[in-house]
Amino acid sequence: MYEKRERLVKASRDVTMYSKKVIFQVHRLNSKNKESVLEQAERDLANVKMDHVTRVAKELQGSEFWKFRRAYTPGMQEYVEAAAFLEFCKNGRLLTLDDLNESFAELKDASSNDFQLNLLDYLLGVGDLTGELMRLAISSVTDGEVDSAKSICNFVRSLYMSLSLISQEVDDSWEMKQKMEVMLQSLMKIENTCYTVHVRGSEYFPGAVLENIEGQRMEDN
């Protein structure tokens, strides 16, 4: 049992590390390189799944999904965050739990086990997504793409309201409450940025405003 837990922890760490690299890759996109950046990010995410999520799946059978959850949940949350961030930047929509589990169906051939992501890890990963969207919104403003920032703001607001309605029903733990607090902070930062742009005007940004927005982005990174 100890050896299995250690293998899961190691696999989870690798999933986390390589998922973060996918997120960094997606943050490189702009209007000129969007297609190539997203295509590369998709390939990288597929490699994370086949090379590292498969290792998690191989260790889990039946009730072990919950028995060993603490060993692998950090990696799976990070994977959800990366996959959801990529999906939003590509198609402007929220990646669903069904989407993810459908993509994991091919892992059965590699691991012989039917791996399914649980609802709790999905929601916790989606909670982290809002932090990346906050950074993307602020970056959009500094690049002059105000409409994009407003669209992100509306998406995050809707996502926060939806999760607020169901989060306590799914899990009332400290971890979920903390995620909701972080989501609210991200939403408020996006709203404040969009409000600043609205008040000061979208055509001209005084240096102090840009410095404040850029400083906020660097602080959150």
CATH hierarchy, class of the largest domain? Mainly Alpha
The proportion of residues in beta strands is under 5%
How many helical elements?
Answer: 10
CATH architecture of the largest domain: Up-down Bundle
Give the helices and strands as they follow along the chain. Answer: HHHHHHHHHH
* CATH homology group of the largest domain: Translin, domain 1
Give the class from helix and strand content and strand pairing: mainly alpha
Note the overall shape: globular
Mean pLDDT: 87
Tell me the Rg in angstroms: 18 Å
Distance between the termini: 37 Å
Percent range of helical residues: over 70%
Given as residue ranges, the uncertain stretches (5+ residues, pLDDT < 50) are none
What do these coordinates show?
This protein has 221 residues and is mostly helical. It has 2 domains: 2-117, Methane Monooxygenase Hydroxylase, Chain G, domain 1 (Up-down Bundle), CATH 1.20.58; 125-220, Up-down Bundle (Methane Monooxygenase Hydroxylase, Chain G, domain 1). It is 81% helix and 0% strand. Helix 2 (34-59) packs antiparallel against helix 4 and helix 8 runs antiparallel to helix 9 (174-200). It starts with a helix and ends with a helix. The model has no long low-confidence stretch (mean pLDDT 87).
